């Protein structure tokens, strides 16, 4: 059957190219020799393999190795022609002959020309960055400010960002524009105003910085002041001022307390004076009757207290103890 197949291929030779025909003939011959060798070996091993048969098997394995190598090379070429863009990312294609392409590649798997085109992947999700800045206030006080920024690139402007700035656009742009904007805004306020009007300062910095970043193709989702400190001299002066204010508050409290005590004493004295005056007037009007009434009330109270006491109190008769009741 193998011989017939070889003859058939030779008869249809004009329909195939010479290279394919020779390759097919060689493979068919090699397969025929392999089957022949296997047949001889399976017949009991009473016949030794000829040198030609060993050579045929060696050529067959060599062909298989070449085929595996070709498949590996082909797989590498196909793999180099594919690239993936993860979620939240975008890609810009750089062509060695035409430069950076204007189209932005979205998420998924895409094709490119191997060794001619190269993908540059950008992270388009919001990312935080802290930028420390040392600047001066309106009253020439040193101010240390740390600004936290949430930023992301405009996806449609990625080719321009890559061409004009580069992949590390955040390292090149954000520190520069943040320092510029902070110096301009902080210079409008005194050191004390930076503390008392911190929300206003943060809002102005956010507005100016967002507008400035948009010229570079960046979107700022959030801008906030996370750290605000002053120089050592100013900090000590503020602490001394706070101590003085606390001492003044304490002294004012002491004065107010003394004034209240004075007023309470005056009111108490006035009450005693008025009470004495009322008693004197009552005595003048009622004579000894009021005094006797008070004696009776006192005696009644003493008797009530003694009646509730466990101790027995003996009062000698006829001694006029405690008070003299009127006859």
Can you put this structure into words, describing what you see?
By secondary structure, the protein is α+β, with helices and mostly antiparallel strands. Strands 3-2-5 form a three-stranded antiparallel beta sheet, covered by helices on one side. The protein has a three-stranded antiparallel beta sheet with strand order 6-7-8. The chain has a two-stranded antiparallel ribbon with strand order 1-4. The chain has nine helices and eight strands. α2 (18-42) packs across α3. The protein has four domains: 2-80, no CATH class; 82-122, no CATH class; 126-230, 2-Layer Sandwich (Tetrahydropterin Synthase, Chain A), CATH 3.30.479; 247-309. Mean pLDDT is 77; it is low at 1-16, 44-49 and 322-327. β6 (127-136) and β7 (142-153) form a beta hairpin. Helices cover 57% and strands 20% of the residues.
Q: What's the SSE blueprint?
A:
Layout: H1 2-11, H2 18-42, H3 51-80, E1 82-85, E2 89-95, E3 99-105, E4 108-111, E5 117-123, E6 127-136, E7 142-153, H4 158-164, H5 169-186, H6 191-196, H7 198-214, E8 218-230, H8 232-286, H9 289-308
Antiparallel strand pairs: 1-4, 2-3, 2-5, 6-7, 7-8
Helix pairs in contact: 1-2, 2-3, 5-7
What brief labels describe this structure?
single chain; 327 residues; alpha+beta; Tetrahydropterin Synthase, Chain A; three-stranded antiparallel beta sheet; 57% helix; elongated; disordered N terminus; mitochondrion; Prohibitin; membrane; DNA synthesis
